[in-house]
Amino acid sequence: MTNKNDSLPFAPDAQPWLDRAMTADGSDVRRAIASERPATRELAVLMSPAAEPCLEAMARRALQLTRRHFGRTISLYVPLYLSNYCAGGCLYCGFSSDRPQPRRRLERPEVREEIEALRAKGFQDVLLLTGERTPQADFDYLRDCVALAAAEIHNVTVESFAMTAGEYRSLADSGCTGITLYQETYDPELYAELHRWGEKRDYRFRFDAPERALSAGLRTVGMGILLGLREPRADLICLFQHVRYIMKRCWRGGVSVSFPRICPHLGQFSPAHEVSDKFLLQAILAFRICLPEVHLVLSTRENQAFRDGIAGIGISRMSVSSRTTVGGYHHGSDTGGQFDVSDTRDVDTFCRMLRNKGLEPVFKNWDAVFQDS
Length: 373
Fold this sequence. Notes:
With 373 residues, the protein is of the alpha/beta class. Helices cover 38% and strands 11% of the residues. α3 packs antiparallel against α12 (277-290) and α5 (108-120) runs parallel beside α6.
């Protein structure tokens, strides 16, 4: 297990920028909002206490940048949980191996039926999820599920355990276009406390995974932290530094950023740091101003009112009609979910909300036939 940041090829460091955030004033905030080449300094200032009275000005700038780079579109995707078997010991997760709940995985015919159910809803962008690597849901199982999905769905991505470069290359060959992999927290000591056992305890192996994935031929990587585990400004600054590093190292690939907050789940983990709606809004606006060309993602973890308010202002990609149990679209499920879903609206209702706001839901943004061009 890696416990020291100095063993990493690049080590995010929040402290000097936290100090900058705590000393920022209104003039610093105005300069950061107007900056044409924002960097870590501007991000820290925009997440500072001094920026709280400036959310309206930040929102205007974020809206301008979102429209410039993404138009009025919201890219929609749906998660499909393949398995809730898990060998990990994450304190904050409902799938942790010590959680007493029924375990199952989808078999090949069930995967096909779930995919057909999602296609019937209009989806052509599916995120396949599992727990940490187990004999019941190992790499071969995941790769087979990717191939099944990719035969019917144009954009298939994976949120699962960290893998080797060879495994990522094999996923790409099977039709996978990208991965989502959150570092959870950039504090190595806290990371070790939260990940009690399993492969995920290896901080460095997980930290390096986005670069391995893009270097191995995958097109996109979704990055993020789990808000609430650590003082949020510190982890968000480190996340921003990591994203910028990946964008420079793997400039041919695409990066997206998610902002998940800890949700209630089996095990009832209590986060050390509460993240309010107001601060989450401020963080999303800050990231949009400082990463104008990057997809910012918001899942159904968040409540309906918050999602409606931020759609198209800073957020350009959203999940909808999510189930966090195994299957759940075609089959009923007796397993526990990874976390509780807050926004439970169906696809038609959600899309109607977007259109009423002058936004266009997008279910498909490219054809699989062009992936190798």
